[in-house]
Structure formats: C-alpha cells, structure tokens
Amino acid sequence: MQKKWLLGVILGISLIIFGIIGVLYNPISKDNLSLNPNTVETPNLSENQQSGPSNNSGNIIRALPIPKLQEDIDPDPNRSEFNLVAQEGSSNFIDGKTTPTLGYNGNYLGPVLKVKKGNEVTINVENKLSDDTSVHWHGLEVEGANDGGPHQVIHPEEIWKPSFPIQQEAATLWFHPHVIGTTATQVYYGLAGLIIVEDDNSLSLNLPNEYGANDIPLVLQDRRFDDDGSFVYNDNMMEGAFGDKMMVNGAITPYLDVDQRKMRFRILNGANARNFNLQLSDSSQYYQIGTDGGLLEAPVTLNTLFLSPGERAEIVVDFSRYSKGEEIELRNKNTLIMTFRIGDELVDNTVIPDVLNEIKWFDESVASTIKTIELDGMGHMVTINGRQFDMHRIDDKVNLGDVQIWEISTIPGMMTSNGHPFHIHGTQFQILSRDGGEIPDNEKGWKDTVFIGGTETVRIIVPFNYKGAFMYHCHILEHEEAGMMGQLEVY
Q1: Do 471 and 439 have their domain in common?
Q2: Cβ 109 vs Cβ 70: under 8 Å
C-alpha cells in the first residue's frame, strides 16, 4: 500500500513538472500542421466583420462577425444539400499580424447549416487540408456510418457525402473534426461550425428568429498567440489547452450593436478545455430557452450560465431595459468576452412564451440496464473505467431501441481533475440527478454533453435509436486524445 501511495506521489509531481515545461514550450507549431500563411483570403463571415482601430493590446476592435448561412443547393423544400470544404487559410486577429488558420469554406470557423425536422440532408465534405480530417455532427441523431467520428476519415483531396434524415426537434448543434490524433489541434486552429435545426413548434413560438438580426450565434473560444501572431497551441499536460485571449465568432472581445429589443443568442462553448460562467456586467437577468438538444419546457431566469466544452445554450436578453449609448459586457466571471452597444428603441413583436416545448420524460423503469462510467486521471494519464481508448475495441454492445441509465463519476484521488464534460455520440439524453439530488431547472431538457464535477456522480438516462459504432468521451479535447474515450456498438 505504501509503495502504491509513493508511486502516486511520484506520478503527481512528474505531471506537475511536465505541465510547467509544457507552458514554457510549445510542441505543436503551425509548421507541422502544414498550414500555408499565404493562402488567399476566402472570407466565411458576414460583412459585420469590419476591421477598426486596435486597442493598447494590439487587438483589432471589431464588430462581432456573424457566420454566414450556407446555401442550400437542393431546390426541393423537403431536402437540403450543402457543400462544406475544410481548408487552410489566414486571419487577421491582431493588428499588423497574420495568423495561419483552418476553416470550413473560409479562413476560420465555418458557416451555419440550417435545416428542418423531416428534411433529408446531404453534405458534401471536401478535404483540402494537407492532413486527414473528419467531420462529426455533434448532437445529431444519425446512424453511426454518418456520425463523422474516427471511423469516417476523409483523406486529403477526398470528398465524403453523408446523407441522413433530420428526425429530432429544433436545436442548436455543431460540427467539428474527430480524427484520431489531431482533433484538438484542428479545432484549435479553427475547424468548427453550427447547425440550426428548426421544427414546426420552434417556428410557431414568435421567439426572436431573424438570423443575423435578433437571432445571433456566439461561438466562444480562448486562444493564445505568439509574438508573430501565430496561434500557440499548448497542451499543458494537466487540464488541456487554454488561451489568454477571449474570442467570439473568430474575433477577440468584439462588440455588437443591438437595438432596444429582445435578442436571442445561440451560445456554443467551442473551447478545447475552458469552462465558462457567463454573466452580464450589470448582473441583470436573462432567460435560458434551450439546452444542447432542444427547447426547454419553459424559460428559466438566470444571471449566471455555466457551459463546459461542447455544451450549448440558447438565451434571450431583453435590451429594452437599457438606454441608447449604454454599453453592457458579457463576461466570463470578471473576464471580458464581448460588449453590447445599445442603440435605438425598436418596435418588438417577439415574445418569450411561458410554454416553449413538450418533452417526453423517460421513467427509470424503462431502462434495460444501469451502467457505471468512471472518469479517472488528468493530463495524459486519463482513463474510462480503467482503460484508455482502443480503436479496435468495442467497449459496449447495445441493442437497438434500448434505454439505459448511466452513472458517471469522477474518481476521487490525488490525480483527480476539476471535472470533465462528458459527450455521447448519436443520441440525446436526459439528466436524472447530481449526487443523488435535484438538477438545476436549466438542465431539465435534452442534452448530449454533461459536466461531471470533481468527485461528483451524475445519473443520466440514454436512448439508443440508431445503429452503428459511436464514441463516448470527455470533451476536453486533450483528454479525449489522451485516451479518455470509449466505443459502443448499437446493433
């Protein structure tokens, strides 16, 4: 027992030392990612991305970029088809400096794919990178062959053409790479985008729903830059890659001009590892209306919103309470994320309904089994149920149509993490409890990613309605790549 304890102490001290070394040394550069800083600019963002003067830090003072809606090239109203190209590019985040980046259909991030429940969707994904990639539809309920996980690798110059029906309710989802070994770096350099699913219910509610006007996506990230303007990707060996600059939709601490009306924001925590605690600078309240997988049953009033990597939330902020000329900040605790600049009064006919959705809740009695998931370790020494990921191993076999209860916990000990965002591919689930107690009202909806705090146990109930192989993993991308991932097969 003493030897085991001593080994744990040695390992802990070693990781701390390696973490310090990692902060000082960047093992991954733009060069070994094969990025081309001379790539011709092909903007993916709307005209709202306007360069302005720079502040004392050299950051360009920029209006919030609004990702473009990708053109649907299928004229059939019951079908949708999109072209998506993963490509190398360059971006100008800091005054006078060029940053080599990656993007979909542009230099950084990607367009928004907007679809409707009932549509048959085809996406032509072309890989123009110098490396393998894949595109995972995070939150979409699809067969395993269309999921875009590690099994669906797209080699350079290849095109992958998944087709699938949209069979889930209105939600804000997203897409990003999921290829073994480079997921974290490809996301860090810019490969991510949103999917908006609409349905008859969401379109009937008279919520703010005019994309780019009163319905705005916010992709939150943190990034670190070298003196020459290039990204510094630094896996610190402990809790993943963190940056010291806050970015929204590909701009550092931007501003958004808003009229005095209700505004809907579709927020994605697109960071590799950072959690966000979102507050307005005057601590005023706003309304959460949606979770990862759909609308809540009723709006939830908040003044702080917690989002871990991979999680999404839809909120509505009523700016009619402010006066023209005021500035309100969105902050991560005390750190500036972006600024809202209040404009004119505006006639606003949108509403925040008392009832948003009707959710079919699972009774625990329908579960076929109770499964235990233990998340253990930090840095590169991470496991699920004592094992690291093996692409050639199926960890769980599940019958099609089964509903299971998963009890997910972070194992206490010297090497305990502060917590893990846990994601399951190809399904949406419901949270039953946290440490045996009630869950917050804003978690009472469909989820595909749930945060498991240090020493915490969270119970969820999960339906498996699609065949194929699917991943489940920590969504701290560095933990995922270090092996905190499992594989299940639904048959």
Answers
A1: yes
A2: no
Query: What is the number of structural domains in the chain?
Result: 2
Query: Cα–Cα distance between 303 and 299 in angstroms, integer?
Result: 13
Specify the 3-state DSSP secondary structure of 43.
coil
**Angle (nearest 5°) at CA 431 between 427 and 434:** 145
> CA-based angle 279:309:249, to the nearest 5?
70
Q: Which distant-in-sequence residues (6+ apart) come within 8 Å of 20 by Cβ?
A: none
Q: Are residues 297 and 372 in the same domain?
A: no
Structure tokens at 4: 């085991």
Band of pLDDT at residue 38, cut at 50, 70 and 90: very low
**So what's the pLDDT on residue 8?**
42
Please indicate, yes or no, whether residues 256 and 376 belong to a single structural domain of this protein. Answer: no
- Cross-strand pairs, 80: 121
In a domain, 421, yes or no: yes
Using alpha carbons, select from 157, 137, 158 the residue that is nearest to residue 149: 137
Report, as an integer, the average pLDDT of 196-223: 98
Q: Are residues 241 and 322 in the same domain?
A: yes
**Cα angle vertex 268, ends 285, 140, to 5°?**
125
Which pairing describes strands 262-269 and 215-223: parallel, antiparallel, or unpaired? parallel
Shared domain check, 331 and 238: yes
Chain-centroid distance, C-alpha 45:
19
Identify how many contiguous H helices and E strands the chain contains and give both numbers: 4, 31
Q: pLDDT tens, 141-171? A: 999 999 999 999 999 999 999 999 999 999 9
CA 254 to chain centre: 19
428 and 464 in a single domain? The answer is yes
Question: Do residues 319 and 263 touch, judged by C-beta distance below 8 A?
Answer: yes
Region 438-456 average pLDDT: 96
SS3 333: coil
What is the residue range of 406's domain? 364-490
Query: Which CATH number fits the domain that encloses residue 234?
Result: 2.60.40.420
